[in-house]
Design a protein that fits this description.
The complex is a heterodimer of chains A (504) and B (79). Chain A is an all-alpha fold. Chain A has 22 helices and no strands. With 79 residues, chain B is mainly alpha-helical. Chain B has one domain. The chains are: A mainly alpha (504), B mainly alpha (79). Chains A and B meet through helix 5, helix 9, helix 10, helix 12 and helix 21 of A and helix 1 and helix 2 of B.
């Protein structure tokens, strides 16, 4: 037990040291605090994107889903590829526009392209409202893991509290640089923790092949869709793929990690790295399936990994891996809190309350909102119960809606602000209605988020085709940006663009 | 317009689309079987890993070839 507490202590102290070291490197501008002055290098970008994207949803939720619902979570392999591809195709363009027009928040880009103040507010509101529940599940998952890893010495409420104290301190002092640097440690821990847990536990059943063979004999329905409950079929397979990848990708914490990147070249490599990292899910396959055979009666599936580890692994190893799980939660939560504080400070405070605020003042407000939002998430973690994957998907379905106006902004000159607005309203409303009104539940087996995206896209395209933008200046400014982007990265497209340009 | 795209880019994007079609359209249900075991893995798991691996390798090739786009340098040389 002492070993467990020691591991937890190390887990707490290391990020603090890294945070203070990062702080010593920072300059006092708000751009440095929020997006590291657009100078983040390759290693930090990969780890902070991967660790932010892989949350307790991935660490605990994946094991839980293999345990209860069979192989449907294998769709994660494809959604990691999709996430990687979007990081290249959408992310690089967002990065380019961010650098060119000096954007820091998602609303900066969408508000600027659509040239519409209301839309800017709707985007900020969607990001804030749907990020908070996703943040809450990180806290719940992380605090639970610390509680178990310490052998119950640290109770849940206290675990969550120290968890957040640490985040607040190092984000306060070091901004996004501190988050990214601690994410390097958390990311590595998380990747190896997930893989190693599965490999270790499956040894009790004769290794992976032995495990699959005995699963085939004892519970073959765990090896095929729609799983042992009969509910996780193709609809869920496709929905998870779409909603998780797009929803997480559109989260403000990932968005800031597009602006922060130093070189455009890095976007070309990220899909490979992000895709490859998905191999860690094999660990979840092994842990979840071992659980089916060794511990078939666990009531709360989210606890399957901690239970398996504490029962079947030496205590020190179990604590280390559980700390890795807490790292998964922490690395997402820190980025989300940082991103939320960025939105509140720049999109709300600076834009509407105090447009002439000094750099110092902006960073200060950023830090205060950091504390306030951490507190809200803390209270929610203590009071709002729920299954990680279910809450996570509902929150992701909301942020996912932003992909439609975003793709419009980076690639289609006809994209119209009215279309973006009605698309978003229609998409979010559809997602919420289907989620919360039982009569509508999951038509054809597809998740609310997928229907939301469908309604959103249709509205967006139809209204954009119908209306014509009157703000030629803005449209032209973006045309030029797109042209220069292609000239730099896609010279093969240039001849077409010149024709398009002439026709303007 | 499509003819203006370099071969590499066409090939890369077609292959990537193929990977996503195989993994995420109802086509995946054709591979929805526990047996035969391949390399010690149930067939459905093997099938997903296989196409995930192909996708990952494609991303690596994409990186090496600048996603099939000629770099500005290469273009100015050819002019």
């Amino acid at each position: 037990m002492t070993v467990g507490v020691l591991i937890i202590a190390a887990f707490m102290i290391i990020p603090l040291v890294v945070g203070f070291f990062a702080a010593s490197k920072s300059t006092k501008t708000s751009e440095d605090f929020f997006i590291q002055g657009r100078g983040m290098g390759a290693v930090a970008v990969f780890f902070t994107v991967a660790a932010t994207w892989w949350s307790s949803f991935a660490f605990l939720g994946s094991n839980a889903t293999f345990y209860t619902s069979g192989p449907v979570y294998l769709t994660a392999l494809a959604w990691n590829l999709l996430f990687g591809f979007m990081y290249y195709w959408v992310g690089k363009r967002v990065w380019y526009l961010g650098k060119r027009f000096n954007y820091i928040t998602p609303s900066d880009l969408l508000g600027d392209f659509y040239n519409n103040e209301k839309l800017r507010m709707v985007v900020a509101a969607i990001l804030l409202i749907f990020t908070i529940p996703y943040l809450q599940i990180q806290l719940t998952g992380g605090a639970y893991l610390i509680e178990v890893a310490s052998g119950g010495v640290i109770p849940f409420w206290f675990a969550a509290l120290i968890f957040y104290f640490i985040i607040v301190i190092y984000v306060w002092v070091g901004g996004i640089r501190a988050v990214a640097w601690t994410d390097i440690i958390y990311g590595a821990l998380l990747f190896f923790g997930m893989l190693f847990a599965g490999i270790y536990i499956s040894q009790y059943l004769g290794g992976p092949t032995g495990l699959f063979k005995s699963l085939l004999e004892n519970s073959p329905e765990h090896l095929t869709l729609p799983g042992p409950l009969g509910t996780s079929g193709y609809g869920q397979w496709f929905s998870l793929f779409i909603v998780t990848a797009i929803g997480a990708f559109m989260g403000p914490q990932i968005w800031l990690r597009m602006y922060a990147v130093k070189s455009g070249k890095l976007f070309n490599l990220m899909p490979f790295l992000l895709g490859f990292a998905a191999i860690a899910y094999m660990g979840s396959v092994l842990t979840g399936f071992s659980g089916v055979l060794l511990e078939p009666d666990v009531a709360n599936a989210d606890q399957i990994l901690p239970i398996m580890l504490t029962k079947y692994a030496p205590f020190a190893l179990a604590s280390l891996i559980l700390a890795a799980g807490a790292a998964a939660a922490m690395s997402t939560a820190n980025s989300q809190i940082h991103a939320i504080s960025t939105i509140v400070t720049l999109d709300i405070y600076q834009r509407y309350a105090n447009p002439n605020a000094s750099q110092d003042k902006i960073v200060k407000v950023g830090r205060i909102s950091l504390v306030v939002f951490s507190l809200i998430a803390y209270v929610m973690a203590l009071t709002v119960p729920g299954v990680l994957v279910t809450i996570g998907i509902a929150a992701l379905a909301g942020t996912a809606q932003l992909i439609v106006p975003t793709i419009g902004a980076i690639s289609w000159r006809r994209s119209h602000p009215t279309a973006a607005m009605w698309g978003l309203i229609g998409g979010v409303a559809t997602a919420l209605l289907i989620t919360f009104i039982p009569a509508f539940s999951a038509p054809l087996g597809f998740h609310a988020g997928v229907w939301g995206l469908l309604v959103n896209s249709i509205l967006f395209i139809l209204i954009s085709l119908k209306l014509k933008r009157t703000d030629e200046k803005v449209v032209k400014r973006f045309d030029e940006a797109r042209f220069d982007y292609n000239q730099e990265y896609h010279p093969e497209l240039i001849d077409d663009s010149i024709e398009t340009r002439k026709s303007i | 317009m499509l003819s203006k795209y370099p071969q590499m880019k066409k090939w890369l994007y077609s292959m990537l689309i193929l990977v996503f079609l195989i993994l995420e359209t109802p086509f995946i249900l054709m591979a929805n079987a526990a047996e035969p075991f391949v390399l010690g893995l149930p067939f459905f798991l093997f099938w997903n890993l296989l196409w995930w691996l192909i996708g990952t390798i494609l991303f690596f090739i994409a990186y090496l070839t600048d996603w099939g786009s000629k770099s500005v340098k290469a273009k100015s040389k050819s002019k």
